[in-house]
Amino acid sequence: MASILIIDDSPTETFRFKEILSKHGFSTIEATNGADGVTLAKTEQPDLILMDVVMPGVNGFQATRQITRAPETKHIPVVIVSTKDQATDRLWGKRQGAKDYLVKPVDETKLIETINSYLHVK
Q1: Residue 5: beta bridge partners?
Q2: What is the DSSP secondary-structure string of the chain?
């Protein structure tokens, strides 16, 4: 069972992601901010990370950069899932090391397809 780290400060979004992911056979780990997410990525070594952008303290772009550049976590694919839908946000997210960028509210089928595409790359 693949484990997915959800880094999102919204309990509602986290709950929705957990529902979708468990239905599709994934285990989940949660962090409510970027700093905790970076720490959990290092200690838990999830198979993939779903990253929100707008969070207090360390935002999703900063956390993505830290995770994708650290030797112990750079192999973990990060998929940004955000309400920010500008082309510049997508470009900036990819420049920080994100593999993909999905916009909330995310379509369940698209989310699972995206996750599976990166898990099968391993």
Answers
A1: 29, 49
A2: --EEEEE-S-HHHHHHHHHHHHHTT-EEEEESSHHHHHHHHHHH--SEEEE-S--SSS-HHHHHHHHHHSTTTTTS-EEEEES---HHHHHHHHHTT-SEEEESSPPHHHHHHHHHHHHTT-
pLDDT digit string (tens) for 70-115?
Answer: 999 999 999 999 999 999 999 999 999 999 999 999 999 999 999 9
* AA identity, residue 38: V
Q: How far apart are CA 49 and CA 63, in angstroms?
A: 11
Q: Can you list the domains of the chain with their CATH numbers? A: 3-119 (3.40.50.2300)
Strand partners, 78: 49
Inter-residue contact 49 to 37 (CB < 8 Å): yes
Cβ atoms of 78 and 97 closer than 8 Å:
yes
Q: What is the pTM of this model?
A: 0.96
Closest C-alpha to 101, from 57, 47, 64: 64
